[in-house]
């Protein structure tokens, strides 16, 4: 199961300096040389590619693989990988010679008023895409130049460097969109297990609900299937085989579990709980809860 990490946790875990002069109002960006990043706890080199609180563009050097829902992308030497917080994946090194560079940035750093582009509308970050691209020696040279220019700007005293850096990030993004995707795709023997694991992760990542104004973004089986880039029937089939429950049953069980927690441990109204859990009205939620538990929400709370 993959872990979730915020930007603060990223910097706490790794021996990585926080950029000076950047404020929450303009978002966050930073660039790292992989071989210079170390885990504080173990002292070992680390490449934290499984984070989800921000976007990443990674230049991978070394043999490794990236696992998505039902596909595996094998990386033999040099590749460019684009990661979005919304699409889970797992990166695994296959030898000790792992170098390269990567940048991390938040959505607000590339807000439309800065770049003229909405990140989630770009093909690279759409569900169903496999945004990993093999790089030729010439492309490696060009990617290296962009990353090192970003490093140079970050360490400079230039007053407007945070106006310039979004352009360099967008240059990397558009560079990737011009590349052809790698063809080294394979279906692993445990593809069904990965789909089930990623589905559960997507489901669990939405909890706990911290505010009555927060609302589940993934509610129906098709929402999860779209995010995992698989057909909803296929998701239902592999989940049934792996867990014994259908997608609907799995979602329902988790919704009821969260509803019970909110009823017992918060002072939210039933209407607020219904809204947060994705129900359109209180009556629908109340009937749903009573059908699953034999109790009305207020009776359960009492």
Can you walk through the features of this model?
The protein is of the alpha+beta class and 302 residues long. It folds into 2 domains: 7-186, Jelly Rolls (Sandwich); 191-301, Homeodomain-like (Arc Repressor Mutant, subunit A), CATH 1.10.10. The protein is built from 11 helices and 9 strands. The strands form 2 sheets. A 5-stranded antiparallel sheet has the order 1-7-2-5-8, with helices on one face. Strand 3 (64-68) and strand 4 form a beta hairpin. Helix 3 runs antiparallel to helix 4 (161-178), helix 5 (191-204) packs across helix 7 (232-243) and helix 9 (270-276) packs across helix 10 (282-293). The protein starts with 6 loop residues before the first helix and ends with a helix. Residues 46-51 have low confidence and may be disordered. It holds the Pfam family HTH_18.
The parts where pLDDT drops under 50 for at least 5 residues are 46-51
Question: What is the N-to-C succession of helices and strands?
Answer: HEEEEEEEHEHHEHHHHHHH
The number of strands is 9
Can you name the CATH architecture of the largest domain? Answer: Sandwich
The chain-level mean pLDDT equals 82
Total number of helices:
11
What structural class do the secondary elements suggest?
alpha+beta
Determine the strand fraction and express it as a percent band.
5-15%
Radius of gyration, Cα only, in angstroms? 22 Å
Distance between the termini: 36 Å
Output the strand order for the largest sheet: 1-7-2-5-8
Instruction: Kindly report the name of the CATH homologous superfamily of the largest domain.
Output: Regulatory protein AraC
User: How many strands, what sense, and barrel or not for the largest sheet?
Assistant: 5 strands, antiparallel
Oligomer: single chain
Total domain count = 2
What is the CATH fold-level name of the largest domain? Jelly Rolls
Classify the helix fraction into a percent range: 40-55%
- CATH top level of the largest domain is Mainly Beta
The backbone outline, from C-alpha atoms, is globular
Organism: Spirosoma flavum
Domain HTH araC/xylS-type: 222-302
Protein name: Helix-turn-helix domain-containing protein
Keywords: DNA-binding, Transcription, Transcription regulation
